[in-house]
Amino acid sequence: MAAGADTFPRYRLMVLAAVMVGFGLVLTWQLVRWQVVERDRFVHMVEDRPTGDEQRSLRRGRILDRRGHPLALDTIEYQITATPRWINRPEEISAVASRLSVLLDLPLEEVTAKLSSDAPWVLLRHRVPREVGEELREWDILGVQVTPRPRRGYPEGTLAAHLLGFVTEDRQGFYGVEGYYDRLLAFPERLGEKDEITGTMTSFTTAGALPFDPAQIAAESSPDLVLTVDRMIQYVAEEELAAAISQHQASGGTVIVMDPRSGAILAMASRMVYDPERYDESPPEHWSDPAVTWDYEPGSVFKVVTAAAALDSGLAQPGSIFEDKGMVEVGGRPIYNWDRQAHGEVTLTEGVVSSLNTVMAQISTQLGPKRFYAYLQRFGFGRPTYVDLAGESKGQLKLPSDAEWHESDLGTNAFGQGLAVTPLQMACAVAAIANRGTMMVPHVLQEIVGEDQTWSRHPTVAQQVVTSEAAERLTEVLIQAAEKGAPKSIVPGYTVAGKSGTAEIPIPGGYDPQATIASFVGFAPARDPRFLILVKVDRPQDTPWGAAVAAPVFRNIAQRLFVIMDIPPDGE
């Protein structure tokens, strides 16, 4: 019994020893294989592995305005770190700390404490300008590391900040052009691949007929983008908008300048603005572009669309008579004019010039829900414009098939209440009238410039929204609407077509009695338009009216554009 007991433990020890020896042999072989036999292959695998940080550190394409001025480009800044154990003598720490505190603009006590610490690595300054970093590199201080880091720079400061967007610390583009064309600017070789976050293919097909095939552009090394935006026009738009907001103590606003013939955006300005190089110092609500992401009820400028539907459908002509009794009821809801007056027999033209809600409600009800909403959809409301800017909203348009739609919406929608649009949607709708009924896809990209080839973007037709004859008749109506309804929009010597609007702001339970959105949208020269301008001023404090607040901004921008664009006079 005892002999058997002694044998069993000895047997288990031998088995355990054999297993351990075997395990040791396997481990030894793996170490030999990794460090000797296949060392070169594993080294190459590690060196060639593309990490996210390494990818994002590659050159990012520049963004230029239509004249070639850089709006966004890569620059270099430096990160300053130190290894305290390499600077270990007290006199050495004191000398190095004194020099660094002056150059890096840091308290001497803070630098001394970091250099005296037991930490293997300390951060002195996360970001310093290029000239500071290069000077420190020339000092060549043992134990102080000067690491170059690419940074996105915006030479024009806050100019066109919303339109451009920004690039984060990890080199990823957000908002505007930087967000929409992030992969093209940073990783052209990955165009057409599925996006890991959204699951969609990156081909930019929603922006219309873009000028390149992803297979062609994939060979390029971070190509540059040339925009349709003109730096001079952008400056004018921002300056005039800022002046109007200050004058009327408004809470914000937007200006869009575009070429109605091509859909090219020449300028897009909004307040509140932020610095894209220091985006993290501004609240996130300032980052998105109000021109494409913020919905609002447009008010009377929307009457341009209702009048277009009347003319195109044959329901009315500019001289057709409507009876204005000061009130009309639609779906059980009474609709009044802005002045609460009855104007008697008026023409369609007079209804637009005097901005009569009752006339517009009569048009929409006579058209009926099916035809009226078909026109609104044809003009692009309720869907994105597919502009090549990140974060676009589609607005809000209730249709008769929707459960929340009410018959009264047929009346209120006719004069821009009860629906919501983005400023760009409204600008594109009126631009279609300026372009003889043809709506173009709005865009900011003009060219893609590679190392050996340039791709030019061609204008893309969205659709024909009304006939050219209807658009021309409406243009004549809008000339009178500008001259008589908003005379402060007129530039002597030039013919202007446009419409002002004073929109109420919805709040729970109704509309804010103390606030409005003042707007004006127009184009010039009216019969051969070179530009369209939409002006939107939020919550002006001194006067609520679009004709008084927004129309002068249109005039101020237009008269400067006539000079910049060398447009000769066409009127008296």
What does this structure look like?
With about 575 residues, the protein is of the alpha+beta class. The protein folds into 2 domains: about 75-150, 2-Layer Sandwich (Alpha-Beta Plaits), CATH 3.30.70; about 235-565, Beta-lactamase (3-Layer(aba) Sandwich). The chain contains 20 helices and 20 strands. The strands form 6 sheets. Strands 1, 2, 3, 4, 7, 15 and 16 form a 7-stranded mixed sheet that branches. The longest helix has about 35 residues, at about 1-35. The termini are far apart.
CATH topology of the largest domain: Beta-lactamase
Q: So, CATH architecture of the largest domain?
A: 3-Layer(aba) Sandwich
Radius of gyration: 32 Å
Total domains, how many?
A: 2
How many strands in all? Answer: 20
Tell me the helix content: 25-40%
Query: SS-based structural class?
Result: alpha+beta
How many helical elements?
Answer: 20
State the CATH class of the largest domain: Alpha Beta
Largest sheet: 7 strands, mixed
Kindly report the average pLDDT value: 88
3D shape: elongated
Write the layout of secondary structure elements.
Elements: H1 2-37, H2 39-48, H3 52-56, E1 63-64, E2 70-82, H4 90-103, H5 108-115, E3 122-128, H6 130-139, E4 144-153, H7 161-164, E5 166-167, E6 173-174, H8 176-180, H9 182-186, H10 214-217, E7 224-227, H11 231-247, E8 252-258, E9 265-271, H12 290-293, H13 303-313, E10 321-324, E11 327-330, E12 333-336, E13 344-347, H14 348-353, H15 357-378, H16 407-412, H17 423-434, E14 438-440, E15 445-449, E16 454-456, E17 461-464, H18 468-485, E18 497-507, E19 510-524, E20 531-538, H19 546-549, H20 551-564
Helix pairs in contact: 4-5, 11-20, 13-15, 13-18
